[in-house]
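Please fill in the sequence for the structure shown.

STRUCTURE ENCODING:
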């Protein structure tokens, strides 16, 4: 039985200026074909990571899962300028997208870059990355599929490391060496939140996991 309470969206879904133009609906996700190489970019903000992934993987499908309307409109406009035809958008909660659009072993890559850290302790339960999420994503990810994570929040990084330990029987941590944890902007997407972290003197943490 699906727990619909996990579909709840926290925080704003649109900017303070109530824009009604949802142009991104033209590339709204209709289905995920498990026979294709599917990349899911979760919480992509204004779409910098989605654009980079789509440009570097033009023969693959890139699905942006994001709640923020202004960000999705921005992503759509960038995709049109770049003539990218392999981007699709799902507006909403990733748990709902998985339950309604994905078959077992249909996803090849997952990217979760700088998810909302919910810094107040009472809000930690809102964080996306935990054992429950990995237990759920396991059946949707193809064997050998990868999960890419990044954060600049010390408390969230600590939680991620504890979670990686709890799932070690199902996922192999590919960059376990501490020297490989640094977020390399020459290889990885340079997002708005990465730039903000560097401006604040923070050194973002990056982890790459593979389903065994």
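FILLED IN BY: designer on duty
SEQUENCE:
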């Amino acid at each position: 039985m699906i727990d619909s309470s996990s579909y709840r969206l926290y925080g704003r879904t649109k900017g303070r200026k109530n824009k009604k133009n949802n142009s991104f609906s033209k590339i709204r996700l209709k289905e995920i074909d498990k026979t294709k190489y599917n990349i899911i970019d979760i919480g992509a903000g204004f779409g910098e990571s989605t654009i980079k992934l789509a440009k570097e993987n033009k023969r693959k499908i890139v699905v942006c899962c994001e709640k923020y309307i202004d960000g999705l409109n921005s992503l759509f406009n960038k995709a049109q300028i770049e003539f990218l035809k392999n981007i699709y958008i799902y507006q909403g909660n990733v748990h709902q997208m998985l339950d309604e659009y994905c078959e077992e072993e249909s996803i090849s890559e997952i990217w979760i870059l700088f998810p909302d850290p919910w810094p107040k302790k009472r809000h930690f339960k809102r964080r996306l990355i935990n054992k429950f999420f990995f237990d759920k994503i396991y059946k949707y990810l193809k064997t050998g599929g990868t999960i890419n994570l990044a954060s600049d929040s010390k408390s969230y990084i600590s939680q991620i490391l504890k979670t990686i330990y709890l799932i070690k029987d199902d996922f192999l941590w590919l960059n376990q060496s501490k020297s490989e944890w640094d977020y390399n902007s020459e290889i990885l997407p340079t997002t708005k939140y990465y730039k903000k972290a560097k401006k604040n003197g923070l050194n973002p943490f990056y982890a790459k996991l593979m389903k065994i």
